[in-house]
Amino acid sequence: MDHQLPRLPRQAVGSAEAAFLIDPETGAPVVYSTVVAGTPGGAVADILFDVDLSAAQSAVVQLFGTFAGTTQFEQTLDGVSWFSVIGLAVGSKAAGVVASTGVGAWCFPAIGKRMRARVSAFTSGSIQSNVCLSNVPAAALENGSTLSANITVDAQANAGGLSVAKVRTLATTNLTLVGTGARRCYGWRLFNNAAAPRYLKFYNKATAPVASDVPIFTLVLAPGVVSDFESTHGISLSAGLGYAITGGLADNDTTATAVDDVVGMIIWK
């Protein structure tokens, strides 16, 4: 069986050593050379390390030591123009920083040809770093975004089962509060048993809706038809989930339905 051998460590800018980390078969990080250490001088723009990202999909960087200074994390496509990058802070859901004034560890997506740590401000001490290049990808985040915001939906969806609100119209406009507080509507299954359209109006409210409220959207239920909807992530409602079912399309319509014009359920949490 042929195996891809690691290439020899190379001399990087800043008197640091770096090497590709190649995983020939399994996709797990394999470290051939990990330590990239440097002690910048007093001049601004000293390079702590500069590594080649070819064939790598991510770079894990650790800064350590006792120092007073600021390190900028940057990548380049052409080796001339450099841009700032954000990575995932290890041990946290938040995105890492473009510039670090202290110790820490971050995982950066390898979106450029090369990556460097540039010391943009330096007062004293010794800034040291470890770099691990891998072909296991890291999540690429937009500047300023956080993982916690991106996983909120999945966390809610997986926290226990969903609830079902039974729907059965009466001879009213069926103004109903399903649940108060932050809620999500994950779908519905409704049958319009009437001979004319009926209109389901959804409200984002912490209290029961009233006729003068403006719905966030209106669902038209065609006569004699089952309306089905299902969403993995759900429709977010910050205050609460409420609904009305009327015989007219207008937001403030007060046309009452008949008993059992619409039957079914709304799925929510």
Give the end-to-end Cα distance, rounded to a whole number of Å. Answer: 53 Å
**Helicity range of the residues?**
under 10%
* SSE pattern: EEEEEEEEEEEEHEEEEEEEE
Count of DSSP-assigned helices: 1
Give the overall silhouette. Answer: elongated
Low-pLDDT sequence parts: 1-22, 29-38, 140-158
Compute the average pLDDT: 76
Based on secondary structure, the structural category is mainly beta
Major sheet details = 5 strands, antiparallel
- Radius of gyration, in angstroms, nearest whole number: 29 Å
Strand content: over 45%
Number of strands: 20
Question: Going across the major beta sheet, what is the strand order?
Answer: 3-12-5-10-8
Q: What are the main properties of this structure?
A:
mainly beta; 46% strand; 269 residues; elongated; 20 strands; 1 helix; five-stranded antiparallel β-sheet
Tell me what the structure shows:
The chain has one helix at residues 147-158, and strands at 10-12, 16-18, 35-37, 46-52, 58-64, 67-76, 82-84, 88-89, 99-100, 104-109, 114-125, 128-134, 163-168, 176-180, 183-192, 198-204, 217-221, 226-237, 240-246, 262-268. The chain is mostly beta strands. A five-stranded antiparallel β-sheet has the order 3-12-5-10-8, with no helix packed on it. Strands 4, 6, 7, 9 and 11 form a five-stranded antiparallel β-sheet that branches. The protein has a four-stranded antiparallel β-sheet with strand order 13-20-15-18.
